Amino acid sequence: MLDARGRSCPEPVIMIKKAMAFNEDEYAILLDNRTSLENVSRFARVAGYHSDYTEENGIFTLKITKK
Amino acid sequence: MIKNEKIVIVIAGIIIGIISVTLVLLGNPANMGFCIACFVRDTAGALGLHRATAVQYIRPEIIGLVLGSCLMALSKKEFSPRGGSSPLTRLILGFFVMIGALMFLGCPFRMILRLAGGDLNALVGLVGFICGILAGIFFLNRGYTLKRTYSLPKIEGVIFPVIQIVFLSLLLAAPAFIYFTEAGAGPGAKHAAITISLAAGILVGILAQRTRLCMVGGIRDLVLFREWKLLLGFLAILASAFVMNAATGNLSVGFANQPIAHTDGLWNFLGMLAVGFGSTLLGGCPLRQMILAGEGNTDSVITVIGLFAGAAFAHNFSLASSAKGPTTNGMIAVAIGLVVMLIIAVVNTRKAAATVNN
To answer: What integer is the mean pLDDT of A7-22?
Structure first.
């Protein structure tokens, strides 16, 4: 579980990019703003992952899984 | 969804380019439909923070950008008062980004508009800008961070938009203690009508907030992640402004005699190097900082305060360039700025583990 809450652009995407080096099938990342949500989702999709998120109280939990 | 986002940002860029040239046609200085640096500097002058009489005017475009962003954020429930991410470091970075911008005589937005007007000096600036971003990326990849930001009380996020409304009131009321460049006395006297500038700022603020437009992000995301989205936006601005300049006889290709510009290649390069490096360390170009400030991001508000301080110092200590070229003080200031940015980058970089939780 990656915690990118409070992190501003482009840190969340750098975090997921570094995590993807471990080639896991699934990642979960906590975000708290839409811009980061969009950026990470976009990056994940281009990298060949499917992305989905849930939101609670302004915190997004983004789950990405390898296609 | 990816395709859709790209189409949206290209359309937004085309509109922004058209608005920018229109502002010039309606009175703004040449190749300066928008310039966050110059306009913050002009506003600082109007408030008496500096006394350079040629550049004193509360620019409604800035007010519009902030309010447009604020309204758009509120409507999409993205208004989010937050702050606490190395505020003083951001203040200093904002300060030196302004110093760099006034060395080149433009922020990244104006750099694009100058290019679109045929000002090839902006090409030199662009090279410096890209180099600065690459330097910032070097540190980002090694774990550079200004640490996280935290949620703040609503009033914290509201203060800056309210200040913009105060500025608008001062502009409209024009009390004696607010400075206005006299007609013919400099770029500060060249401006479109208040309502037009305000409306233009609001529209661009809305579009920029919605699309997350950012000049730095454009190049940065391409290099870091092979992501074209933001860059397409600013290419669209360049293209549409260029076409409109050509169509309205406002195109003048060359290095010499460009409006509010100088031909000193080295210092155009170094000025924008500082802007690119500093903006990357800040997480966004001056336009993006203004938009974020409208969304309640007080880290960006602090950065904007740094921009104001930089502009005030620049004109109080002869740091800003003129059409004749850079000043010696300005060269020293930019050199100091680059060193300070380097120190900030190094001190805030540490090898970050991929899944660290902090």
So the answer is: 92
Question: Pick from B78, B151, B354: which is nearest to A34 by CB?
Answer: B78
pLDDT for residue A58 is more than 90? no
pLDDT tens, position by position, B320-351: 999 999 999 999 999 999 999 999 999 999 86
Q: What 3-state DSSP class applies to A54? A: strand
Dihedral sign, Cα of residue B284, residue B289, residue B293, residue B298: positive
Specify the length of chain B in residues: 358
Q: Which residues does B57 contact at the CB level (< 8 Å), separation at least 6?
A: B42, B43, B45, B46, B180, B181, B188, B189, B191
Interface of B with A in 211-240 (CB under 8 A): 212, 217, 220-221, 224-227, 229
Q: Which domain holds residue A29?
A: 2-66
B149 interface with A at CB cutoff 8 Å:
yes
Domain CATH for A35: 3.30.110.40
**Model pLDDT for residues B75-84, shown as the tens digit of each residue:** 999 999 999 9
- Interface residue ranges in chain A relative to chain B, Cβ cutoff 8 Å: 1-3, 5-11, 13-15, 17-19, 21-22, 32-35, 38, 42-43, 45-46, 58
The residue written with tokens 């900030």 in the block is B344
Number of folded domains that form chain A: 1
ipTM of this predicted complex?
0.94
In a mutational test of the A interface, the residue from B75, B78, B137, B149 whose CB has the highest number of chain A CBs within 10 Å is: B149
Rounded to the nearest angstrom, the minimum Cα separation between B143 and chain A is: 9
Q: Cβ-count burial of A26 within 10 angstroms (0-12 exposed, 13-18 middle, 19+ buried)?
A: exposed
| Whole-structure pTM value | 0.95
Query: Who among A2, A5, A10 is closest to B355 (CB)?
Result: A2
